[in-house]
Amino acid sequence: AALVERIWGDDLRIEGVVVEPLDGVDALAERVREFGPGPGRRLGVLVDHLVPGTKEWRIAEAVTSEHALVVGHPFVDVWQAVKPSSLGIAGWPDVPRGQDWKTGVCRSLGWPEDTGAAWRRILSRVRSYKDLEPELLGRVEELIDFVTA
Fold first, then answer.
1. What kind and span of H or E run contains 13?
2. Which position has the higher pLDDT, 101 or 24?
3. Beta-strand (E) ranges in 24-139?
4. Which of 2, 17, 64, 67 could lock onto 12 through a cystine, CB 3.0 to 4.6 A?
5. For 27, phi and psi rounded to 5 degrees?
6. How far is CA 52 from the centre of its chain?
């Protein structure tokens, strides 16, 4: 939510769109019911690493409707949607399966293992959409088009 707000926030507010963190999809069905999408009240949700056939995919499919759209980007975490060049690194490190990805990234880059501080560091380097990977840009634009239609 912080990344979307940083890049698109002003434009979204003009359109009456609010950006909020979801903190995972496990409670998505409940959050969608609470929001109550319907005519004139559309909901768009962006999910990290939404892979067909997974639990997260099934949850997303169950809540998608004419008034609620859930899309995913291909990155393990939204951190990866920030271009490495914007951070002054050659690329995002490979983190072995079974290891916490964010902690593994911090270790590999020689950063303190404080993922909150790491995210603030990453976010501080994002100035415009040019600092983001096209795969994220397309999904966010899709959601914006959906909720403002």
1. helix 2-14
2. 101
3. 43-47, 68-72
4. 17
5. -105, 20
6. 17
**113-to-7, 67, 108, 120, 142 alpha-carbon distances in Å:** 26, 40, 10, 13, 34
Please say whether the dihedral angle defined by the alpha carbons of residues 79, 74, 15 and 8, taken in this order, is positive or negative.
Answer: positive
- Looking at every residue in the chain, the average pLDDT score rounds to 94
State percent of the chain over pLDDT 70.
Answer: 100
27, 28, 29, 35: CA torsion to nearest 10: 110
3-state class (DSSP) for residue 72: strand
- Report the Cα–Cα distance between both ends of the chain, in Å, rounded: 21
Predicted local distance difference test score (pLDDT) of residue 49:
87
Separation of alpha carbons 79 and 86, rounded Å: 12
pLDDT of residue 24: 85
Structure tokens at 88: 């002054």
